[in-house]
Amino acid sequence: MSVGANAVKNCYTEIVSKGFALPLILIVLASIFVGVIYFRFKNKGPNQTALVVSSPVSPDAYSGWKTYRNKVYGFTIRYPKEWFIKEYGDWAADFLATDPNIQEASPSAIKVRYSRSTDKVDLTEFEKIYKSKVGAGIYEPLDVKSIINKNKNFEVGEYAAVDYFINRNFSALEGPRTQHRHIYEINKDGTILRFLSTAGTEDEYRIFDLIFQKMISSLKF
What we know:
Elements: H1 3-17, H2 22-42, E1 66-70, E2 75-79, E3 84-88, E4 92-96, E5 112-117, H3 120-131, E6 137-140, E7 143-156, E8 159-169, E9 178-188, E10 191-199, H4 202-217
């Protein structure tokens, strides 16, 4: 018989011989049990510790990118840190891969442009594209060689938006050349906010369009 068991037995014999009541017996036994439990937990090894699970922290997808803020229309958009920006008040801004102070930016050099419009014709055009079917080709009224192809409707914040692109094949009198444009338009209370990416070749389009789409994904109101 173990030493602990002998102690319990002797304690029980002494209590009974002196005529103590049953409740006191239970109290004594409970005290011994609690003492044993405490002794075991106190002498646990150092490797028996609680498991702590930390939540993973997501890295900033736009780390190092600059931020353009438009206080009038209440939005921000991120753009690559290597790029340059040329602002035209609150109504337009060019995001350029080349320094505009060294080389004057031409429409073909502009990679991404933001502009706003309150013209009714632009609002009508937005509604036309927004209501059209995805994948449907829409000919621009002034250039039969330009076709608008709609990608999707979506929302930015609470505002309706449309994603489409335009492939243009200019005539021999104007080049000949091609132009690829990817456009996101947002209808903010009757004002059309347009974000436009321009490329002269398909290879250039594939490169800059990935950057452009990432920029759009950072757009916040």
